[in-house]
Amino acid sequence: MLTIHADSRGRALAVDGAWIAAAGPLEEVAGACPGARLRRWPGILTPGLVNPHGNELLEDAYHPDPREAGELGTEPLTGEALAALAPDETRRGASARRGVQRMLAHGTVAVACEELRSRAVRDAVHRSGIAVVGRTGRPGGTPSLDPYASGLPVTFAPPRERGSAARFAVFDVPDEAALAAHGAAACVATVVGGRLVYRRR
């Protein structure tokens, strides 16, 4: 079904399957797509974020299940804590799925990785639909689910235009300067492959 996503500034994207069918002011997009379902979002539509720390957050960290919070806490385990936990492949895959979901909740639509060593992690990333972009070497900075907290320049996915893949995010802030100040925790929705994969409840 053709769906129009519109932000509080009147900017809009029409999504048809996995692709952007139209982009521009809401009035123009709605006129070009009669009968489309309309979703209005608070804040701003932006291209989705690229998290530079794919390996560090999905292979070199363990994201506890909420049921493990009493024992392991809620923050990702790394270093000695991860070594002590010694998760098997099944547990690594489950952790990667939770890690990806938490990235999506921060408006991330792609991760930068060297080759992922764990098959369970590779499978979890592939099934999520999140894009993987190559990188060479470790990027520095501080691995964080919020790319704005990494200490590195923030990178966005390619611009949203007609015919491009429908990968974008919505942040409940008035403009890009406020997004940089508040960080990606302001995300209210993330779309990957045309699917609404995260929506703040």
Write the layout of secondary structure elements.
Blueprint: E1 3-6, E2 11-16, E3 19-25, H1 26-32, E4 37-40, E5 44-47, E6 49-51, H2 54-58, H3 69-72, H4 79-85, H5 89-104, E7 108-113, H6 119-128, E8 131-134, E9 155-156, E10 168-171, H7 176-182, E11 187-192, E12 195-199
Parallel strand pairs: 1-4, 6-7, 7-8
Antiparallel strand pairs: 1-2, 2-3, 5-10, 6-9, 10-11, 11-12
Q: Percent helix among the residues?
A: 25-40%
The largest sheet is:
4 strands, mixed
How many DSSP helices? 7
Number of strands: 12
Strand content: 25-35%
Q: Which structural class do the helices and strands define?
A: alpha/beta
End-to-end CA span:
23 Å
Shape: elongated
Q: Flag low-confidence runs.
A: none
Strand line-up of the largest beta sheet = 3-2-1-4
How would you describe this structure in keywords?
single chain; 201 residues; alpha/beta; Urease, subunit C, domain 1; 2 domains; four-stranded antiparallel sheet; 7 helices; 12 strands; elongated
What is the structure about, briefly put?
The chain is α/β, with parallel strands linked by helices. Helix content is 28%, strand content 27%.
